[in-house]
Amino acid sequence: TASGAHLDTNIEAALKAICGSLGLDYSALAQWDKATELFVITHSWVVNSNVSGRRFSQRDIPWLAFSMFRGKSLQFGRSSKFSSEAAKDVETVCHSDIESAIFLPLKAGDQILGFVCFASSRPDHEWPEPFGDRLNVISDVFANTLARNRSEDELVQTQERRVLEADERFRLAIESFPTAAILADENGTIIRVNSRTALTFGY
Asked: What number of other Cβ atoms are within 10 A of residue 175's Cβ?
C-alpha cells in the first residue's frame, strides 16, 4: 500500500541517518514472521551492500534469538569475552568484518516484533550507556510504528474479508431464487445473473 511504502522509506531513511550521525556502517531491522517462524530483515542501511530480505530461523541465531524473545538488549564486541556462538550469530546477521554491534528488541506491549541492530567495523567502537539508552528509545519508536501499521493492515484485511463474505452471501441468495434473476446497474448493464437465467432464456 501507499502508506506501507511511505513507512518503509521513513524507516530506512532513519536507519541511514542514525548510522551517518554515529559513524556506523551497518544497520538492519528484522521482523519476526509468526507464520514461517523466521526473522526477516525488512529494512536496512549498510555501506556498499544490501541485506534486506535475508531470513534467519531461531536455530540460525540461537544466542541472539534467546535474548531478543526475552526483551533484552545485547552488546557485542570482539574484544570482550563473548562465546564463539555469539560471534557466529553476529556474523550470520551482519558480516565477518563487524567488530562491535548492539541488538535491541522491538517490543510493543508484551509482544516481540523482531529486533533492530547497529554495528561498526571499527575495533575501537564502544556503546556507552547513554548511547544505548538513546537507541532503546529509537527502537521503541520503530516497534510502536510497526505495531500500529500491523493493526491498520489487519483492519483493512478484516474489512476486505467481510466484503467478500457479504458478496458471497448475496451470490448464494440470488442463486437460491426458484426463477430467473437478473441484476443490472443504473445504466442497464447486467452485473449478475443466477443459473436459472441460463435455463430459462438459453444463454
From this structure: 13
Beta pairing class for 55-56 and 38-46: antiparallel
pLDDT digits (tens, 9 = 90+) for 140-196: 888 888 888 765 555 556 666 776 676 777 677 677 777 777 777 778 788 778 788
Cβ pair 121, 25 in contact under 8 A: yes
What percent of the residues of the chain are helix, what percent strand, and what percent coil, each to the nearest 5? 45, 25, 30
CA distance 89 to 83: 10
Which set of grid coordinates corresponds to residue 11? 524507516
Output DSSP code: residue 94: S
Cα 196 to its chain centre, rounded Å, is: 48
Task: Report the C-alpha gap between 90 and 84 in whole angstroms.
Answer: 10
Give the max Cα distance, the chain: 84
What is this structure's pTM?
0.69
Q: How many CB atoms lie within 10 A of CB 98?
A: 22
